[in-house]
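Here is one chain, start to finish.
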Amino acid sequence: SQVRRAVETAEELGLERFIAEVLLGVLIIGTEAAPSVTVRVVTRLSCEAAPALAWHGVELPRWAGPADALLIGAVDGRHPRLVALAEQGARRGLAMAVVAPAESQVAAAAGRAPVHALATDHNVRAFRWSVLTPLLQALDALGVQPLPPALLREVADALDRTAEICRPGSESFTNPAKALAIEFAQTQPLIAGAGALAGVAARATADALQLYAGVPAVAVSLPDGIARAGAVLRGAGPAGAGDGFFRDRLEDGGRDRARLLVVGDDGTADDPELGPRSGARIQLDEVAARRAASALHRLAGELGLRSSSVDVPPGAPLTRFAAATAFGDFTAAYLALGLGLDPGASAPGELAH
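Its structure:
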């Protein structure tokens, strides 16, 4: 519903004013849990067309000017750092788009820049697509990444399908998110992303497991992260969990056994749904990532550890990213509930915002 609302109200955002004739760089700024994922996605989608930087400073870099774009996602709208950055962006003439609650300090600081008004009645962790979708529309308007309404509607459909599959009323033997949550309660989650956006989805899932359920989780991006992931598997397998000096003799220590979940190793590396890519990119990115994922599955099997892949619908990378992150959120929420925690309760850092 958040994605569809942003598509239906796109004209109200006024993105026709948000077109830069020459774009040198893109700065992406956000706070809180949902925007942290948003910043990574927007940065990843922007970096092929223009230098893109997730900015965490209290002042804009000295080089930022009218030939650069500034994208701000603010769930609260009162964060003084974001207010100051929006004021600086308006003063320097950056092409700027802001997502924030209406009448908030951040929205006011944006001046004449397009502002997408956020609702204020959502849980702080339920804002991801309300923030992300308007920023994706801004990337499309800038010509940085083609993200037409049809693709965003496909994303909304994928989110709906995942919500139906992982719905709370279904039993654990038919609900993959509940089944995985049960396994994660007894193991150390290791999330590996095979591909550009899949790596972001893996990090988002690990973040959700930590934030919702307080469970330590390791996230890696493949192929570069295969050595770290392999080390985690070896350290958590039978050989690593044996009668070592540091083993707890009083407890069985089941959580030291890893449980591998891979995002993005479905389909084929040359799938046309992944968009136009050079042969080198297919070989170096997609093929290498899938080979690394296969190697991790094989290693997990040799060590007697369980592994699986996130089942996502076929489609564009953004559609598959949406389904994978939604599945990760459901899994983290069920794990939190199983541990007796409220997955919607604000963490100390969120309360500060």
